[in-house]
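FORM 12-B: Structure-to-Sequence Request
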């Protein structure tokens, strides 16, 4: 890849990991089975072999598992040693879909805020890989919402530890009515611009709050939609997303990432 001038990114799906969950049930999110007696008192029972599954029938690792942190960091270090230019951490969050009320966590205490759990992991990644180029994927709504979206993602938590912050600002993933559009997927320029302007403003505010004491300057580099959902994403709509990214980030623009699950791209 390098001989062809290609910048090589190794993407790691962190906590959505059926392989590790199958091998290490003790680190995996499990199902809490409920039963009740006539008085309506519930008992929650853990089965070590009953893995909790999301809507795609995939199992997850408890994001508070420090053994899982070490496991993923070791994979990242190995990829860097083999010549990859950057490590991209995806699915670095708590689960977002499925029967969330039935989730049980073998390591998370249920008290520590989810975003603190992830921030501690972010910190450890950087401590273990101080010189590596690192990026993290976040939900698009993390650019706008001030809460953790119920999955532990607060965009400010990532600014200190990663070189590239990659919000997945797919217009099809925004709810009807977002910034006044019944079908946000039909308005890629407006949706991406609004999201990335918010993210950039929050990054600038964070820099001011930290007195610009960053060891490195993080950049925003969005994931953009190049798949048909909500609208047919031809080169015109994808081009509108790219233009919106460039316009909204200005001097901080450092490119973009395109996603199509079939690897069929319009650009």
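FORM 12-B RESPONSE
SEQUENCE OUT:
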């Amino acid at each position: 890849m390098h001989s062809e001038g290609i910048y090589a990114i190794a993407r790691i799906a962190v906590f959505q990991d059926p392989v590790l969950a199958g091998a290490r049930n003790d680190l995996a999110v499990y199902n809490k089975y409920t039963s009740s007696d006539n008085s309506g008192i519930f008992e929650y029972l853990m089965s070590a072999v009953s893995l909790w599954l999301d809507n795609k029938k995939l199992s997850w690792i408890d994001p508070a598992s420090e053994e899982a942190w070490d496991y993923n960091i070791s994979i990242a270090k190995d990829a860097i040693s083999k010549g990859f230019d950057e490590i991209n951490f995806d699915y670095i969050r708590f689960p977002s879909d499925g029967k969330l009320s039935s989730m049980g966590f073998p390591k998370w205490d249920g008290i520590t805020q989810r975003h603190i759990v992830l921030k501690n992991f972010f910190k450890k990644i950087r401590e273990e890989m101080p010189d590596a180029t690192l990026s993290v994927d976040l939900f698009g709504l993390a650019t706008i919402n001030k809460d953790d979206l119920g999955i532990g993602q607060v965009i400010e938590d990532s600014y200190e530890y990663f070189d590239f912050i990659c919000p997945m600002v797919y217009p099809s993933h925004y709810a009807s009515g977002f910034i006044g559009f019944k079908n946000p997927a039909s308005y890629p320029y407006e949706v991406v611009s609004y999201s990335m302007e918010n993210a950039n403003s929050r990054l600038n505010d964070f820099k001011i709050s930290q007195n610009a004491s960053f060891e490195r300057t993080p950049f925003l580099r969005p994931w953009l939609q190049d798949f048909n959902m909500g609208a047919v994403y031809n080169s015109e709509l994808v081009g509108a997303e790219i233009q919106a990214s460039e316009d909204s980030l200005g001097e901080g623009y450092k490119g973009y990432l395109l996603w199509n699950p079939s690897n069929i791209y319009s650009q």
